[in-house]
Design a protein that fits this description.
Elements lengths: L14 E8 L14 E9 L4 H11 L6 E3 L6 H4 E9 L2 E6 L4 E5 L6 E4 L2 E2 L21 E8 L9 E6 L2 H17 L9 E13 L6 E13 L1 H15 L2 H9 L50 E2 L4 H12 L14 H10 L4 E2 L4 H16 L5
Parallel strand pairs: 1-10, 13-14
Antiparallel strand pairs: 1-2, 3-11, 4-5, 4-9, 5-6, 6-7, 7-8, 9-10, 11-12
Helix pairs in contact: 4-5
């Protein structure tokens, strides 16, 4: 059973903050004032989110750029929306697509005058008249909002990225569609890098309709390089004839790691590592005139400096996904790294450990129909 307007709405997580491009607005400066654009993001957490704010600052500092994020849903409309909007005293009174109004209120009375694209007084579609209004301060302006999850915060909660730049809106829309189409219609869980990058764009310059090119720091969304590298390998393999493609897929990857080769890998006192790849007892050994070559396991590579963080996170994660744990209860690192490579993670870094574990866990849940092995 559902309650109309309450339980039949779209899926959502709690919002814990906002990500903005410019300095805070100074309401005392009146019309014609625009806050200074920054070269980094201004991240504001809700007052109750002190721990999240501290964790974020420890990761990205006070001038964050290149923030690693994921999107929680595959459907772009659930994480990204862009409209033209107008506000009075901080309250939205108009939303349209540039031609027709989807929602509007009378700013003097607060009464709804347009709802679901229909003008209440006439019962007809409502045309937008604010896009080119004489008073520029009253015009409806492009407004985009992107809901992102920061995996390092370990929260199923999102922050909203705000922009009023036409160029940002074009960038974000095009980049999301490109990533989705490249990945077979899926964008959820892909590690993305949210950044500000300088571009020379055409802007109004004084009177007479003149324009000039100026540097603007636009929002960019780019898939994490490790994911892109794996995706390119996959695309290359699928583009080859079937027999050749299978050889490419089966071929061992150069540079694949063995955890025993990591600089600070800890062995047990008996020299048998973590006990997940124990040799067979001597009584079961089969003598051979020549050693039999062992085919290397294809694993994601743990980037130098990330091995301790990886093992710590993996041990905790394996308590939930026991399929990836050894007899001693610690994580089977090679099993996890093999699954990570299958999910497109060629290299494991401090920044993408959590996103990788979440994606491997999601895949396991889908395959087994549960959250535990």
């Amino acid at each position: 059973m559902t309650i109309k307007g309450l339980t039949d709405r779209n899926m959502a997580f709690p919002q814990i903050g906002n990500i903005r491009k410019g300095e805070p607005k100074d309401e005392t400066k009146g019309k014609g004032y625009f806050p200074k654009d920054l070269h980094w993001f201004r991240v504001e957490f809700d007052a109750a989110e002190k721990q999240a704010e501290q964790d974020f600052a420890a990761l990205y500092g006070d001038k964050p750029n290149g923030i690693v994020v994921i999107l929680p849903f595959d459907e772009i409309s659930l994480v990204w929306d862009a409209w033209r909007e107008a506000y009075t005293a901080g309250a939205m009174n108009h939303r349209c697509d540039g031609e027709h109004i989807v929602y509007a209120i009378n700013p003097q009375t607060g009464d709804i005058v347009v709802q679901n694209w229909i003008e209440i007084a006439t019962g007809q579609p409502a045309l937008c008249r604010l896009k080119d209004f004489a008073d520029k301060d009253l015009r409806c302006k492009p407004t985009g909002r992107l809901s992102v999850v920061i995996p390092q915060l370990k929260r199923l909660a999102y922050l909203v990225v705000h922009t009023e730049s036409i160029n940002d809106i074009k960038n974000i829309s095009n980049q999301l569609r490109a990533i989705r189409d490249l990945n077979g219609g899926h964008i959820a869980g892909i590690p993305l890098v949210l950044s500000r990058k300088p571009h020379m764009i055409s802007t109004p310059s004084g009177t007479g309709g003149k324009r000039a090119r100026r540097e603007k720091w636009l929002i960019s969304i780019e898939a994490d390089p490790t994911w892109v590298a794996a995706k390119i390998d996959q695309m290359r393999a699928f583009a080859l004839p079937a027999p050749v493609a299978q050889q490419v897929i089966d071929a061992p990857k150069s540079g694949g790691p063995n955890l025993a080769d990591l600089s600070d890998y800890d062995e047990d006192e008996n020299g048998e590592g973590d006990g997940h790849d124990q040799p067979a007892p001597e009584s079961e050994a089969v003598p051979s005139a020549e050693p039999t070559p062992v085919k290397p396991r294809k694993l994601a590579k743990v980037k130098g400096g990330a091995d301790k963080a990886f093992r710590t996170a993996a041990d905790e994660w394996a308590k939930r996904y026991t399929r990836y744990a050894g007899k001693d209860g610690r994580a089977d690192y090679n099993h996890i790294l093999a699954s990570a490579l299958a999910e497109g993670y060629v290299e494991i870094t401090v920044e993408n450990i959590r996103a990788m574990l979440e994606q491997v866990g999601q895949r396991h849940a889908i395959e087994t129909g549960s959250e535990e092995a």
